[in-house]
Amino acid sequence: xxxxxxxxxxxxxxxxxxxxxxxxxxxxxxxxxxxxxxxxxxxxxxxxxxxxxxxxxxxxxxxxxxxxxxxxxxxxxxxxxxxxxxxxxxxxxxxxxxxxxxxxxxxxxxxxxxxxxxxxxxxxxxxxxxxxxxxxxxxxxxxxxxxxxxxxxxxxxxxxxxxxxxxxxxxxxxxxxxxxxxxxxxxxxxxxxxxxxxxxxxxxxxxxxxxxxxxxxxxxxxxxxxxxxxxxxxxxxxxxxxxxxxxxxxxxxxxxxxxxxxxxxxxxxxxxxxxxxxxxxxxxxxxxxxxxxxxxxxxxxxxxxxxxxxxxxxxxxxxxxxxxxxxxxxxxxxxxxxxxxxxxxxxxxxxxxxxxxxxxxxxxxxxxxxxxxxxxxxxxxxxxxxxxxxxxxxxxxxxxxxxxxxxxxxxxxxxxxxxxxxxxxxxxxxxxxxxxxxxxxxxxxxxxxxxxxxxxxxxxxxxxxxxxxxxxxxxxxxxxxxxxxxxxxxxxxxxxxxxxxxxxxxxxxxxxxxxxxxxxxxxxxxxxxxxxxxxxxxxxxxxxxxxxxxxxx
Length: 553
Prior knowledge:
single chain; 3% strand
């Protein structure tokens, strides 16, 4: 019986290890492609008003010099961390979190960004609800009847606006909401740091990797700029970071049933909250479901199958439940909204800003169909068939179209942070304004582009140099040598989660409406991989240099 159980366990571990290794080599290729396209080209906007996406080839030697300089910084951090161990993070953590909060506060004071377009509509609805007016729930004429998924952000903003109104301060509430967004940004970095501490508990490189992660987080200019953008990206990413950390604890600790239930509840609640605030986070839910099933096959933990069943149920039901509550309060219905198929059809069309970007097709189709999902889908299928026929007749055009769609999203190092935050109602400082329309615009784009290349390079190096096992290493200190860190089976869930989530996002947004802003959450998810990869790359470089110098001597 024991022999049978042992054989079964070995087969399970072999299956698990095969999946991990296959995912590793696949994502190594994918991240290498991301690096090469980002390193050699840049997607950017020159005119902040038209926001048309342009493309240009980069000068490689500038990028190489900056990357080498950054690696020198990483090597310095490694040398310091080897001397002071975890104490380096006790300095880096509060400094980084304080800097992110301070940067967000300075942008509130000097940036004076105001919500615009959809963000302004969402804010206005929340402001009305905070004042007791639910008139925005108004059947076909309601914005929510087109985009019911926005009810999440509306609901989130109501209470802070109410509290702000009680203070009686004569200033728009959205300024204090940006402060709340800044706190969410701090949460993202804090829980990313806690996640790395959990995953790397036996890794001697933990201090260096955590320090580099904090350095990357503090240098992430689009991340800092997005603290002034009142939409779902930052709050949803904060909820995801808490959910992933709770899952890491659940998988890495042999805890009591009570603690397992608590951690499972946190995963469910914060994943559902992430989807409630930003519906595209369903891509994360799909990735999480695949990983939970994979982990259950290996460990047979009952909590994982419970999560597997409850995560999608709660994530898909929270928005309809809240909408029903609004409908019950007003006696008016909210329509089902523009259809998914119309987004896919729009993603195959030309637009003023770029290939596959928003051109109003989904909105117009839903209106012309009389708010009928069936008729809207029929019109969308016809549009899809028409574009497919055109692509077949013009393969070179089809290749160029999807190449531009890819580059406009994954090679824009700013992640549309300038476009998202450029609107203001006066009072913006000349220095901040220069990022949008002045002398700092081009340097900002260049710095963001090189930073993106560093993130992609670090991610590729992580998958190139790391080794993975299906179970605990017998000697963690040896397994986690500078020749390449070995990750235990309890930690590989994050490896698989990142592979499926980011590549799933790539596939999704190649089909869906394009926008580099949609790629921003995936870039945040890559930061831990990039930090570990840059440390491994620096270790390799130090080893090669040390060997070469020793031979010369």
